Amino acid sequence: xxxxRTRSQERILxxxxxxxxxxxxxxxxxxxxxxxxxxxxxxxxxxxxxxKLEGMVQLRTLANGEALxxxxxxxxxxxxxxxxxxxIPIHQCPxxxxxxxxxSSHKFKIFYHTLEFFGLCGQCQINQTAEIGE
Length: 134
Description:
The protein is built from 5 helices and 5 strands. By secondary structure, the chain is α+β, with helices and mostly antiparallel strands. It has a 3-stranded mixed sheet with strand order 4-3-5, with no helix packed on it. A two-stranded antiparallel ribbon has the order 1-2. Strand 3 and strand 4 form a beta hairpin. The radius of gyration is 18 Å and the shape is flat. The termini are far apart.
C-alpha cells in the first residue's frame, strides 16, 4: 500500500535528506522559508507528526527539552552532558538483539530506537573538580 503524502510532508522529507543531523521544527521552518518553500510553523509540526507516525522521521529530545527531527534511517545512541549539553554519538548498539526479540514476542513493528546516557563529559568533570578545589 502506497502512502500518499502532502506537499508539505514531501518538502520536509527532501530537506531532511540534505541535512545529516537532527534539526528542530523551528529550524526546518526557517530553512524552508530560505528556500522559498514557505509554510506555516503549525503545518511543519503537523507534517512532522504525520511523518513520525509513518516511521519516516524520528524524534530525539535533548536534555534541555529541545526536539530534533531526522530521517528514521538508523538507530541513534548518545552520551549527553547535562552541564554543557555536548552530545557524543555512540556507534555500537547493545540492544539490537533485544529489539528483534521484542518485535517477535510482542508482534510490534519497531521503526527505530534511541539510547541515551546522561552525565558529565570529561571537560565538565575537570571544571567541576577545579571549582570544588577553589
